[in-house]
Write a structure and sequence with these properties.
- The chain is built from five helices and five strands; from the N terminus they run αααβββββαα.
- By secondary structure, the protein is an alpha+beta fold.
- Strands 3-5-4 form a three-stranded antiparallel sheet. Strands 1-2 form a two-stranded antiparallel sheet.
- A hairpin with a 5-residue loop joins strand 4 and strand 5.
- Helix 2 packs across helix 3, helix 2 packs parallel to helix 4 and helix 3 packs across helix 4.
């Protein structure tokens, strides 16, 4: 292999090579498909894209962990955690009362979907599709590739 590289490279230039382990990453098509469905469900339901995305991550996402344990965040009970753009959280029934008399709730911190591998992201997309189907929203959940295979099909 080194001989092939040497033959293909210009010997008058210096070359640098980086070798790293291949990561199991999802493609941009999956990401585009997910966000298109999120947008359609948000529009149909009257909720924001952020709300729908956080709801999907709460139910189908991956919990953040440190040393094998979940990570928590305390927030005022009055905050709508599904509308937060800076954090993805999972509701717990753990509450505390502050010295100020206000109620605080513990939420598990969920990993952002940008860090999901193909398998994790696939679970998120499947959960979104099942949510759409269960909601009776008039939203097509087939991918463009799946729809293309049906063109011209007549039972």
């Amino acid at each position: 292999m080194m001989q092939l590289l040497k033959a293909a490279l210009d010997p008058t230039k210096e070359w640098e090579c980086v070798v790293r382990e291949k990561r199991n990453r999802r493609g941009l098509n999956a990401n585009s498909y997910y966000w298109a469905l999120v947008g359609k469900l948000a529009k149909w339901s009257g909720k924001s894209d952020i709300y729908i995305h956080n709801d999907m991550i709460e139910h189908y996402g991956v919990e953040e962990e440190q040393e094998g344990e979940p990570v928590y965040m305390m927030l005022l009970e009055s905050i709508n955690y599904k509308e937060l753009s800076y954090a993805h959280l999972k509701w717990t029934n753990n509450i505390r009362y502050g010295d100020n008399g206000k109620v605080y709730r513990a939420y598990k911190i969920m990993r952002g979907s940008r860090y999901y591998d193909t398998k994790e992201f696939s679970r998120l997309v499947d959960g979104l599709i099942q949510t759409i189907i269960g909601s009776d929203a008039p939203i097509e959940t087939m991918t463009p590739a799946e729809l293309a295979t049906l063109k011209g099909y007549e039972p």
